[in-house]
Amino acid sequence: MTMQTESDLQPAPAQPAVAKAERYLNPYAAGAWLGLLLFLTVLATGHGLGASGGLARVLVAVEDIFAAGRVDANPSLAEMAGGPQNPLNNWVVFNVLGALLGGFVSGLLAGRVKLELPRGPHTSPALRSTMAVIGGTLVGFGARMARGCTSGQALSGGAVLAVGSWAFMFAVFAGGYLLAYPVRRLWN
Amino acid sequence: MAPFDIATHWGTWAENLSYLGFGFAFGFILERAGFGSSRKLVAQFYLRDMTVLKVMFTAIVVALVLNFWASGLQWLDFSRVFVNPTFLGSGILGGLLLGMGFIIGGFCPGTALVGAGTLKLDGMYFLGGVLLGSFIFGETAPLYWAFLEQSGSLGRFTLADWLHLEPGVVVLLVVLLALAMFIAAEKLEAWAQARAAGSNAPGVQQ
Protein backbone atom coordinates (compact mmCIF):
# COMPACT_ATOMS: atom_id res chain seq x y z
CA MET A 1 0.00 0.00 0.00
CA THR A 2 2.82 2.39 0.84
CA MET A 3 4.30 1.54 -2.56
CA GLN A 4 1.20 2.79 -4.37
CA THR A 5 1.25 6.05 -2.48
CA GLU A 6 4.88 6.54 -3.45
CA SER A 7 4.21 5.92 -7.13
CA ASP A 8 1.30 8.39 -7.02
CA LEU A 9 3.71 11.02 -5.79
CA GLN A 10 6.35 10.15 -8.43
CA PRO A 11 4.36 9.67 -11.65
CA ALA A 12 7.04 8.18 -13.94
CA PRO A 13 9.94 6.67 -12.04
CA ALA A 14 12.46 4.96 -14.33
CA GLN A 15 12.06 1.45 -12.93
CA PRO A 16 11.88 -0.98 -15.84
CA ALA A 17 12.76 -4.00 -13.67
CA VAL A 18 9.92 -3.26 -11.28
CA ALA A 19 7.35 -2.53 -13.98
CA LYS A 20 8.21 -5.82 -15.70
CA ALA A 21 7.86 -7.71 -12.43
CA GLU A 22 4.11 -7.17 -12.43
CA ARG A 23 3.76 -9.80 -15.14
CA TYR A 24 5.40 -12.42 -12.97
CA LEU A 25 3.64 -14.68 -10.51
CA ASN A 26 3.30 -13.32 -6.98
CA PRO A 27 6.48 -14.42 -5.14
CA TYR A 28 4.61 -15.98 -2.23
CA ALA A 29 2.40 -17.93 -4.64
CA ALA A 30 5.45 -19.08 -6.60
CA GLY A 31 7.12 -20.10 -3.35
CA ALA A 32 4.05 -22.08 -2.26
CA TRP A 33 3.99 -23.97 -5.57
CA LEU A 34 7.71 -24.64 -5.28
CA GLY A 35 7.31 -25.91 -1.71
CA LEU A 36 4.46 -28.20 -2.76
CA LEU A 37 6.57 -29.54 -5.63
CA LEU A 38 9.48 -30.20 -3.31
CA PHE A 39 7.20 -32.07 -0.88
CA LEU A 40 5.78 -34.24 -3.67
CA THR A 41 9.29 -34.97 -4.93
CA VAL A 42 10.34 -36.10 -1.46
CA LEU A 43 7.22 -38.27 -1.10
CA ALA A 44 7.90 -39.97 -4.42
CA THR A 45 11.68 -40.38 -4.28
CA GLY A 46 12.94 -39.70 -0.76
CA HIS A 47 15.06 -36.75 -1.83
CA GLY A 48 14.70 -33.23 -3.20
CA LEU A 49 15.58 -31.17 -6.26
CA GLY A 50 18.95 -30.18 -7.71
CA ALA A 51 20.72 -28.35 -10.51
CA SER A 52 24.50 -27.95 -10.17
CA GLY A 53 25.03 -31.68 -9.65
CA GLY A 54 23.44 -32.41 -13.01
CA LEU A 55 25.72 -29.92 -14.76
CA ALA A 56 28.78 -31.39 -13.05
CA ARG A 57 27.73 -34.87 -14.16
CA VAL A 58 27.46 -33.78 -17.79
CA LEU A 59 31.01 -32.44 -17.53
CA VAL A 60 32.32 -35.60 -15.86
CA ALA A 61 30.67 -37.70 -18.57
CA VAL A 62 32.78 -35.85 -21.15
CA GLU A 63 35.93 -36.21 -19.03
CA ASP A 64 35.17 -39.91 -18.65
CA ILE A 65 35.25 -40.34 -22.44
CA PHE A 66 38.66 -38.75 -22.83
CA ALA A 67 40.39 -39.62 -19.56
CA ALA A 68 38.61 -42.47 -17.76
CA GLY A 69 41.76 -43.36 -15.82
CA ARG A 70 42.09 -39.82 -14.55
CA VAL A 71 38.47 -39.80 -13.44
CA ASP A 72 38.84 -43.10 -11.58
CA ALA A 73 41.94 -41.84 -9.76
CA ASN A 74 40.21 -38.68 -8.54
CA PRO A 75 37.87 -39.28 -5.58
CA SER A 76 35.67 -36.25 -6.32
CA LEU A 77 35.06 -37.43 -9.91
CA ALA A 78 35.07 -41.17 -9.20
CA GLU A 79 32.01 -40.87 -6.96
CA MET A 80 30.08 -39.82 -10.07
CA ALA A 81 31.80 -41.82 -12.78
CA GLY A 82 34.16 -44.35 -11.18
CA GLY A 83 34.64 -47.64 -13.07
CA PRO A 84 31.62 -48.67 -15.16
CA GLN A 85 29.30 -46.08 -13.56
CA ASN A 86 27.46 -43.87 -16.04
CA PRO A 87 27.46 -40.36 -14.54
CA LEU A 88 24.39 -39.45 -16.61
CA ASN A 89 22.27 -42.25 -15.13
CA ASN A 90 21.20 -40.10 -12.19
CA TRP A 91 18.02 -38.23 -11.30
CA VAL A 92 19.71 -34.83 -11.05
CA VAL A 93 20.74 -34.93 -14.73
CA PHE A 94 17.08 -35.36 -15.68
CA ASN A 95 16.10 -32.67 -13.20
CA VAL A 96 18.33 -30.32 -15.22
CA LEU A 97 16.86 -31.38 -18.57
CA GLY A 98 13.33 -31.00 -17.22
CA ALA A 99 14.07 -27.55 -15.78
CA LEU A 100 15.46 -26.30 -19.11
CA LEU A 101 12.31 -27.50 -20.83
CA GLY A 102 9.95 -26.23 -18.12
CA GLY A 103 11.58 -22.82 -18.18
CA PHE A 104 11.29 -22.72 -21.95
CA VAL A 105 7.58 -23.65 -21.97
CA SER A 106 6.71 -21.19 -19.19
CA GLY A 107 8.64 -18.44 -20.98
CA LEU A 108 6.94 -19.30 -24.27
CA LEU A 109 3.47 -19.03 -22.71
CA ALA A 110 4.39 -15.68 -21.12
CA GLY A 111 6.07 -14.28 -24.22
CA ARG A 112 9.46 -14.13 -22.53
CA VAL A 113 11.46 -16.41 -24.83
CA LYS A 114 13.68 -13.91 -26.60
CA LEU A 115 17.32 -14.04 -27.62
CA GLU A 116 18.84 -11.15 -25.67
CA LEU A 117 21.65 -10.19 -23.33
CA PRO A 118 20.18 -8.49 -20.26
CA ARG A 119 22.64 -6.08 -18.61
CA GLY A 120 22.84 -2.97 -16.45
CA PRO A 121 22.43 0.45 -18.07
CA HIS A 122 26.17 1.19 -17.80
CA THR A 123 27.46 -2.28 -18.69
CA SER A 124 28.68 -3.17 -22.19
CA PRO A 125 27.66 -6.50 -23.76
CA ALA A 126 31.30 -7.66 -23.61
CA LEU A 127 31.60 -6.85 -19.91
CA ARG A 128 28.27 -8.49 -19.09
CA SER A 129 29.25 -11.62 -21.00
CA THR A 130 32.65 -11.81 -19.30
CA MET A 131 31.13 -11.32 -15.87
CA ALA A 132 28.51 -14.01 -16.56
CA VAL A 133 31.31 -16.49 -17.28
CA ILE A 134 33.41 -15.40 -14.27
CA GLY A 135 30.42 -15.45 -11.93
CA GLY A 136 29.34 -18.82 -13.28
CA THR A 137 32.83 -20.20 -12.70
CA LEU A 138 32.79 -19.09 -9.06
CA VAL A 139 29.30 -20.51 -8.63
CA GLY A 140 30.23 -23.82 -10.23
CA PHE A 141 33.31 -24.12 -8.04
CA GLY A 142 31.44 -23.09 -4.87
CA ALA A 143 28.53 -25.42 -5.55
CA ARG A 144 30.83 -28.43 -5.94
CA MET A 145 32.69 -27.49 -2.78
CA ALA A 146 29.42 -27.12 -0.85
CA ARG A 147 28.00 -30.35 -2.33
CA GLY A 148 25.07 -28.54 -3.87
CA CYS A 149 23.70 -25.18 -4.89
CA THR A 150 20.67 -23.10 -4.03
CA SER A 151 18.41 -25.93 -5.22
CA GLY A 152 19.95 -29.11 -3.86
CA GLN A 153 21.55 -27.66 -0.76
CA ALA A 154 19.72 -24.50 0.40
CA LEU A 155 16.16 -25.33 -0.71
CA SER A 156 16.04 -29.13 -0.44
CA GLY A 157 18.29 -29.32 2.62
CA GLY A 158 16.68 -26.30 4.26
CA ALA A 159 13.26 -27.95 4.09
CA VAL A 160 14.53 -31.01 5.97
CA LEU A 161 16.27 -28.76 8.54
CA ALA A 162 19.83 -29.85 7.70
CA VAL A 163 22.19 -27.65 9.74
CA GLY A 164 24.78 -27.53 6.94
CA SER A 165 22.15 -26.40 4.44
CA TRP A 166 21.08 -23.51 6.64
CA ALA A 167 24.69 -22.48 7.21
CA PHE A 168 25.24 -22.68 3.44
CA MET A 169 22.16 -20.58 2.70
CA PHE A 170 23.20 -17.77 5.01
CA ALA A 171 26.71 -17.92 3.55
CA VAL A 172 25.25 -17.48 0.04
CA PHE A 173 23.31 -14.39 1.07
CA ALA A 174 26.37 -13.08 2.94
CA GLY A 175 28.61 -13.55 -0.12
CA GLY A 176 26.11 -11.74 -2.34
CA TYR A 177 25.62 -8.80 0.01
CA LEU A 178 29.39 -8.54 0.61
CA LEU A 179 30.12 -7.96 -3.08
CA ALA A 180 26.91 -6.12 -4.00
CA TYR A 181 28.29 -2.66 -3.31
CA PRO A 182 31.68 -3.09 -5.09
CA VAL A 183 30.00 -4.41 -8.25
CA ARG A 184 26.95 -2.11 -8.20
CA ARG A 185 27.91 -0.45 -11.50
CA LEU A 186 27.40 -3.76 -13.28
CA TRP A 187 23.71 -3.70 -12.48
CA ASN A 188 22.56 -0.17 -11.69
CA MET B 1 4.51 -45.35 3.99
CA ALA B 2 6.20 -42.65 1.97
CA PRO B 3 8.80 -41.97 0.72
CA PHE B 4 7.69 -44.31 -2.02
CA ASP B 5 11.26 -44.47 -3.32
CA ILE B 6 10.71 -44.92 -7.04
CA ALA B 7 14.34 -45.93 -7.61
CA THR B 8 14.10 -49.00 -5.35
CA HIS B 9 10.70 -50.16 -6.61
CA TRP B 10 10.89 -49.35 -10.30
CA GLY B 11 14.60 -48.77 -10.93
CA THR B 12 16.84 -45.77 -11.52
CA TRP B 13 15.56 -45.10 -15.02
CA ALA B 14 12.01 -44.80 -13.71
CA GLU B 15 13.30 -42.30 -11.17
CA ASN B 16 15.19 -40.46 -13.91
CA LEU B 17 12.03 -40.21 -16.00
CA SER B 18 10.02 -38.99 -13.00
CA TYR B 19 12.61 -36.23 -12.58
CA LEU B 20 11.99 -35.06 -16.12
CA GLY B 21 8.51 -34.24 -14.79
CA PHE B 22 9.62 -32.82 -11.44
CA GLY B 23 12.33 -30.83 -13.21
CA PHE B 24 9.83 -29.52 -15.74
CA ALA B 25 7.59 -28.23 -12.94
CA PHE B 26 10.68 -26.83 -11.19
CA GLY B 27 11.81 -24.85 -14.24
CA PHE B 28 8.25 -23.76 -14.99
CA ILE B 29 7.73 -22.36 -11.47
CA LEU B 30 11.14 -20.63 -11.41
CA GLU B 31 10.39 -18.96 -14.74
CA ARG B 32 6.92 -17.88 -13.54
CA ALA B 33 8.58 -16.26 -10.51
CA GLY B 34 10.79 -14.21 -12.84
CA PHE B 35 13.98 -16.14 -12.13
CA GLY B 36 15.00 -16.27 -15.78
CA SER B 37 15.97 -12.61 -15.42
CA SER B 38 19.42 -11.93 -13.96
CA ARG B 39 18.50 -8.30 -13.30
CA LYS B 40 15.50 -9.32 -11.24
CA LEU B 41 17.55 -11.89 -9.31
CA VAL B 42 20.35 -9.49 -8.37
CA ALA B 43 17.86 -6.79 -7.32
CA GLN B 44 17.61 -8.93 -4.16
CA PHE B 45 21.07 -7.66 -3.21
CA TYR B 46 20.16 -4.03 -3.85
CA LEU B 47 16.96 -4.42 -1.78
CA ARG B 48 14.73 -3.18 -4.62
CA ASP B 49 13.07 -6.52 -5.29
CA MET B 50 13.34 -9.26 -2.70
CA THR B 51 11.54 -11.93 -4.71
CA VAL B 52 14.45 -14.36 -4.24
CA LEU B 53 14.12 -14.33 -0.48
CA LYS B 54 10.31 -14.48 -0.58
CA VAL B 55 10.16 -17.42 -2.99
CA MET B 56 12.97 -19.29 -1.26
CA PHE B 57 11.62 -19.03 2.27
CA THR B 58 7.98 -19.56 1.30
CA ALA B 59 9.03 -22.76 -0.48
CA ILE B 60 11.09 -23.94 2.49
CA VAL B 61 8.31 -23.21 4.97
CA VAL B 62 5.61 -24.89 2.85
CA ALA B 63 7.71 -28.01 2.22
CA LEU B 64 8.85 -28.11 5.84
CA VAL B 65 5.33 -27.85 7.26
CA LEU B 66 4.04 -30.49 4.82
CA ASN B 67 6.94 -32.81 5.70
CA PHE B 68 6.28 -32.36 9.39
CA TRP B 69 2.53 -32.81 8.98
CA ALA B 70 2.92 -35.95 6.86
CA SER B 71 5.40 -37.40 9.37
CA GLY B 72 3.01 -36.66 12.23
CA LEU B 73 0.24 -38.55 10.44
CA GLN B 74 2.70 -41.42 9.86
CA TRP B 75 2.39 -40.97 6.10
CA LEU B 76 6.05 -40.11 5.74
CA ASP B 77 8.92 -42.00 7.34
CA PHE B 78 11.30 -39.10 7.86
CA SER B 79 14.18 -41.42 8.77
CA ARG B 80 14.17 -42.60 5.13
CA VAL B 81 14.19 -39.05 3.72
CA PHE B 82 17.59 -37.79 2.54
CA VAL B 83 18.94 -35.11 4.86
CA ASN B 84 21.98 -33.41 3.30
CA PRO B 85 24.95 -34.36 5.48
CA THR B 86 26.45 -31.34 7.22
CA PHE B 87 29.97 -30.25 6.33
CA LEU B 88 30.27 -26.83 7.93
CA GLY B 89 33.70 -25.81 6.58
CA SER B 90 33.19 -26.62 2.92
CA GLY B 91 29.51 -25.66 3.08
CA ILE B 92 30.16 -22.16 4.38
CA LEU B 93 33.20 -21.49 2.17
CA GLY B 94 31.42 -22.90 -0.88
CA GLY B 95 28.33 -20.84 -0.01
CA LEU B 96 30.34 -17.61 0.23
CA LEU B 97 31.94 -18.27 -3.16
CA LEU B 98 28.57 -19.13 -4.65
CA GLY B 99 27.04 -15.92 -3.28
CA MET B 100 29.87 -13.86 -4.74
CA GLY B 101 29.52 -15.60 -8.09
CA PHE B 102 25.77 -14.95 -7.94
CA ILE B 103 26.14 -11.15 -7.70
CA ILE B 104 28.90 -11.08 -10.34
CA GLY B 105 27.26 -13.46 -12.79
CA GLY B 106 23.60 -12.76 -12.07
CA PHE B 107 22.38 -16.33 -11.51
CA CYS B 108 22.67 -19.51 -9.51
CA PRO B 109 22.70 -22.84 -11.37
CA GLY B 110 18.94 -23.53 -11.29
CA THR B 111 17.96 -20.02 -12.33
CA ALA B 112 20.60 -20.01 -15.09
CA LEU B 113 18.88 -23.07 -16.58
CA VAL B 114 15.68 -21.06 -16.78
CA GLY B 115 17.56 -18.05 -18.18
CA ALA B 116 19.20 -20.20 -20.84
CA GLY B 117 15.88 -21.96 -21.50
CA THR B 118 14.31 -18.59 -22.35
CA LEU B 119 17.29 -17.76 -24.61
CA LYS B 120 18.96 -15.23 -22.33
CA LEU B 121 22.58 -15.14 -23.47
CA ASP B 122 23.87 -14.30 -20.00
CA GLY B 123 22.23 -17.48 -18.70
CA MET B 124 24.02 -19.52 -21.37
CA TYR B 125 27.42 -17.91 -20.69
CA PHE B 126 26.86 -18.41 -16.98
CA LEU B 127 26.17 -22.12 -17.49
CA GLY B 128 29.44 -22.33 -19.43
CA GLY B 129 31.12 -20.78 -16.39
CA VAL B 130 29.46 -23.30 -14.07
CA LEU B 131 30.91 -26.14 -16.15
CA LEU B 132 34.33 -24.48 -16.05
CA GLY B 133 34.11 -23.99 -12.27
CA SER B 134 33.04 -27.60 -11.77
CA PHE B 135 36.00 -28.68 -13.89
CA ILE B 136 38.46 -26.57 -11.88
CA PHE B 137 37.01 -27.93 -8.66
CA GLY B 138 37.17 -31.52 -9.87
CA GLU B 139 40.79 -31.17 -10.93
CA THR B 140 41.90 -29.48 -7.70
CA ALA B 141 39.70 -31.25 -5.12
CA PRO B 142 42.32 -33.93 -4.32
CA LEU B 143 44.61 -31.11 -3.08
CA TYR B 144 42.22 -30.16 -0.27
CA TRP B 145 40.30 -33.40 0.10
CA ALA B 146 40.88 -33.56 3.85
CA PHE B 147 39.28 -30.14 4.35
CA LEU B 148 36.30 -31.13 2.20
CA GLU B 149 35.71 -34.38 4.04
CA GLN B 150 36.55 -33.47 7.60
CA SER B 151 36.04 -29.78 8.31
CA GLY B 152 32.90 -29.53 10.43
CA SER B 153 31.65 -32.92 9.27
CA LEU B 154 28.58 -33.74 11.40
CA GLY B 155 26.69 -36.23 9.20
CA ARG B 156 22.89 -36.28 9.34
CA PHE B 157 22.36 -33.38 11.70
CA THR B 158 19.19 -31.29 11.85
CA LEU B 159 18.43 -27.97 13.51
CA ALA B 160 16.34 -29.94 16.04
CA ASP B 161 19.39 -32.08 16.94
CA TRP B 162 21.57 -29.01 17.22
CA LEU B 163 19.18 -26.93 19.34
CA HIS B 164 17.99 -29.94 21.40
CA LEU B 165 14.39 -29.02 20.63
CA GLU B 166 11.36 -31.00 19.46
CA PRO B 167 11.10 -30.90 15.65
CA GLY B 168 7.67 -29.24 15.96
CA VAL B 169 9.16 -26.37 17.94
CA VAL B 170 11.86 -25.88 15.31
CA VAL B 171 9.23 -25.90 12.53
CA LEU B 172 7.34 -23.19 14.41
CA LEU B 173 10.53 -21.14 14.91
CA VAL B 174 11.38 -21.39 11.21
CA VAL B 175 7.86 -20.25 10.27
CA LEU B 176 8.17 -17.27 12.63
CA LEU B 177 11.64 -16.44 11.26
CA ALA B 178 10.28 -16.54 7.71
CA LEU B 179 7.33 -14.28 8.61
CA ALA B 180 9.68 -11.78 10.24
CA MET B 181 11.87 -11.81 7.13
CA PHE B 182 8.85 -11.30 4.85
CA ILE B 183 7.76 -8.25 6.83
CA ALA B 184 11.31 -6.87 6.78
CA ALA B 185 11.58 -7.60 3.03
CA GLU B 186 8.37 -5.70 2.24
CA LYS B 187 9.55 -2.70 4.25
CA LEU B 188 13.05 -2.71 2.73
CA GLU B 189 11.63 -2.95 -0.80
CA ALA B 190 9.29 -0.04 -0.22
CA TRP B 191 12.16 1.99 1.22
CA ALA B 192 14.62 1.15 -1.60
CA GLN B 193 12.05 1.81 -4.31
CA ALA B 194 11.02 5.13 -2.81
CA ARG B 195 14.69 6.11 -2.62
CA ALA B 196 15.30 5.12 -6.26
CA ALA B 197 12.16 6.96 -7.39
CA GLY B 198 13.24 10.03 -5.42
CA SER B 199 16.69 10.17 -7.03
CA ASN B 200 15.15 9.78 -10.49
CA ALA B 201 12.58 12.52 -10.04
CA PRO B 202 13.29 15.49 -12.35
CA GLY B 203 13.24 18.00 -9.52
CA VAL B 204 16.00 16.17 -7.69
CA GLN B 205 18.30 15.62 -10.63
CA GLN B 206 18.30 19.16 -12.02
Biggest β-sheet: strands ordered side by side in the sheet of chain B: 1-2
- Portion of residues within helices of chain A: over 70%
**Unreliable stretches covering 5 or more consecutive residues of chain B:** none
Report mean pLDDT of chain A, rounded to a whole number.
89
The largest contact between protein chains, plus residue counts on each side, is:
A-B, 134 and 142 residues
Number of DSSP E strands of chain A: 0
- The poorly predicted ranges of chain A are 1-15, 17-22
The end-to-end span of chain A amounts to 25 Å
Coarse shape of chain B: globular
Average residue-wise pLDDT of chain B: 93
Structural class of chain B: mainly alpha
Question: Which descriptor suits the 3D outline of chain A?
Answer: globular
Radius of gyration of chain A: 20 Å
Describe the protein in words:
The complex is a heterodimer of chains A (188) and B (206). Chain A has a domain at 117-188. Chain A is 71% helix and 0% strand. Chain A is built from eleven helices and no strands. Chain B is mainly α. Chain B has one domain (34-195). Chain B contains eleven helices and two strands. Chain B has a two-stranded antiparallel sheet. In chain B, helix 6 (109-117) runs antiparallel to helix 7. The interface between A and B is large, with 134 and 142 residues.
Compose a concise summary of this entry.
Chain A has 188 residues and is mainly alpha-helical. In chain A, 71% of the residues lie in helices and 0% in strands. Chain B is 72% helix and 2% strand.
